[in-house]
Structure formats: C-alpha cells, structure tokens
Specification:
about 75% helix, 3 strands
C-alpha cells in the first residue's frame, strides 16, 4: 500500500477502514465547529488535511450527507449543513423514544465485554465532568452512542439513531458554553452508561429520560436567549 495520501489502491478491507477513519475525523471536525456551518468542502483539500485518499473521503462525505451534517448540492458542491433549533427539537422527539428503547435492549442483549465498556465510558464521562473538558466529553459521547447502537442488536434502530446523533452533538457544542453545564451533562451520560453496565433496563430507561429532559431544556433555552444561528 502506498504511503501517498492521494493513493486509492487499497484493498476493500483497507478501503473500508480508511472510510471509517475519514468519517470519524470529518464528523468530529464538523461537530466541534472546526468546519463551520456553510463551509464549502473540497475533496482535494480534505485529502491533504486528513492524509487519507480521495475515495474514502468521498464515501465519508456521502455518509455525512445521509446523516444531515453536510449538504451535497448539484453545481454548488458540498457544504457543511446549517444549524436550526426547530429541527433539533424534532430530532429530540425521535431520540427520546429510540434511545430509551436502545438502552433497554442493550441491558438485555449486551455482552459482558460491552457491559464492561459501558462502565469504562461512565468513568470517562465522570472524568470529563471533573475536568470540564469538552473534547473528551464529545469523544466519549460518540463512543457511548456507537456502543448503545451495537449492543442493542437492532439494525433498524441503529439506522434511525445514526440520523440524529451527529446533529445533536453539533448543536450542543455550538451553544453549551452559553446555556449548558458540561459537567452536569457528562454526569447524566455517565448515569446512563453505568445503568446499562449493570444490566438494569428500568434504571437505564430512567437515566435516558433524565438525559433527554436536560438536552431538551437546554435546546429550548437557546430559543429563549436568542442563540439560534
């Protein structure tokens, strides 16, 4: 395999791995607003920035397009999608039901190794709360979302959740310094992860309700403070 970032001669397995890595890096850049809403994205520029070939970059952008984080527009190119409060509230209507279901399913269907990983994520979230570290929080949040999706063993719920998580994380990151409390948010995520690690469906569902209540109140507060972009 060539070391050149523009080479796309990888095997299918390597290509898939590179696509996942390109997606992970691009999603984080968009969610943490290093690539701001309205930014026009260039495949060639992203190849140089990430050191990953054009084909994985293109496939990652298509995935981000399906999730609503980028808009692929004919004759205009690829733009980072705008952020909208009303849209976020609709997302939370779906997230509340889906995430509660997936937390219950993960308690019942998760493996012992996955339960141990939930416990590790809870510890990481507690650390993020203690250190008030937004990047650490965002990374553990993505890890928690991915693990919930995997441990629930329901591909239809996973697909639906995939359309909400990145948009929710980006919205939170945009506004949290003005209308949110990162330590409290991280602790609520820790409670959810710890409940799943204990295989307690009722506790996990209740922790999920508290978490989504917090996120919804936070979202409505952005309207009250005129923080919509």
């Amino acid at each position: 395999m060539s070391d050149s970032p523009t080479a796309d001669a990888e095997s299918p397995a390597e290509q898939g791995s590179l696509t996942d890595e390109a997606y992970r890096q691009l999603e984080e850049l968009i969610v943490t607003l290093q690539l701001e809403p309205g930014t026009v994205l260039s495949e060639s520029a992203l190849v140089k920035r990430l050191g990953i070939g054009r084909t994985p970059i293109r496939e990652a952008l298509q995935r981000l397009g399906r999730e609503g984080l980028v808009a692929i527009l004919p004759r205009r190119g690829i733009l980072v999608a705008e952020i909208n409060v009303e849209r976020q509230l609709k997302i939370l209507e779906v997230r509340r039901e889906l995430e509660r279901l997936m937390a219950r399913l993960a308690c019942r269907r998760g493996s012992d190794d996955e339960c141990a990983e939930f416990a590790e994520i809870a510890e990481g979230m507690d650390r993020a709360a203690h250190e008030d570290d937004d990047i650490v929080f965002m990374r553990f949040d993505r890890q928690l979302n991915n693990l919930l999706s995997h441990a629930a063993r329901n591909e239809f719920a996973t697909r639906a959740m995939g359309l909400t998580q990145g948009l929710s994380r980006r919205f939170w990151y945009l506004h949290y310094k003005r209308v949110a409390d990162l330590p409290r948010c991280a602790r609520l995520h820790a409670q959810q992860a710890r409940a799943v690690s204990r295989r307690n469906p009722d506790e996990a569902a209740e922790a999920t309700e508290h978490l989504i209540d917090y996120v919804e109140n936070f979202t409505r507060a952005t309207l009250d403070r005129g923080a919509q972009r």
